[in-house]
Amino acid sequence: MSLFKVDSMCRIDSLKEHSDIKNTLTEMIDDAERDILTEQTTELVTDFHVSNSGTKQREWVDYLFPFLEKHLQTTCEMFGYRHFILQNIWFQQYSNGQNHGWHTHGGNYTNVYYLEFGKDAPKTQMRHMGTDKETEFNVSEGSVLSFPSFIWHKAPEVQGNNRKTIISWNMNLV
């Protein structure tokens, strides 16, 4: 039996400005420094290692953050906290046959913003603690999914020719 109900610990909302910023943000990410993530995954285009270096200013992050800040503060308050501390933020791009296996994150909350997410794109799946039961949330392009970082989750394999681009970040709520 599960010790908690995953659904009650998560938040799904839409980034209100998504349609206004999608094209510019996607272009900035396409031009950004990137590397290949191979840990617990097929090879993915990402800037995860750049985000963890802390030494590089990333134009796409500077562009996105003002739109995210109000959303993050609202999420923080919904969970009963006053402030958030953003730990790191990165993008990942998935193409046909790519996935990201079961994993957890640092910080106390993880977030996924679905920047490019076609109608057939696979949704993030989460595993209930102490069971093999999985939950898949009803997200779409422009959605932001927030959940406790200790929850095991994965990005199932992309099928077809539509690219999937997500932006993920870890944060502490205080």
Structural write-up:
The protein is α+β, with helices and mostly antiparallel strands. It has helices at residues 18-31, 48-53, 59-78, and strands spanning 11-14, 35-37, 44-46, 84-94, 100-103, 109-116, 125-127, 134-136, 143-148, 153-155, 164-173. Strands 1-9-6-11-4-3-2 form a seven-stranded antiparallel sheet. A hairpin with a 6-residue loop joins β7 (125-127) and β8 (134-136). The protein starts with 10 loop residues before the first strand and ends with a strand. The model has no long low-confidence stretch (mean pLDDT 87).
Give a quick precis of the structure.
This protein is α+β, with helices and mostly antiparallel strands and 174 residues long. 23% of the residues lie in helices and 33% in strands.
Distance between the termini: 30 Å
Oligomeric status = single chain
Instruction: Supply the number of helical segments.
Output: 3
Percent of residues in helical segments? 10-25%
Radius of gyration: 15 Å
Average pLDDT, rounded to a whole number, is 87
Which strand order spans the largest sheet, edge to edge or round the barrel? Answer: 1-9-6-11-4-3-2
By secondary-structure content and strand pairing, the structural class works out as alpha+beta
What proportion strand?
A: 25-35%
What's the order of the H and E elements? EHEEHHEEEEEEEE
Main beta sheet strand tally, sense and closure = 7 strands, antiparallel
Uncertain stretches of 5 or more adjacent residues = none
Gross morphology is: globular
Total E-strand runs:
11
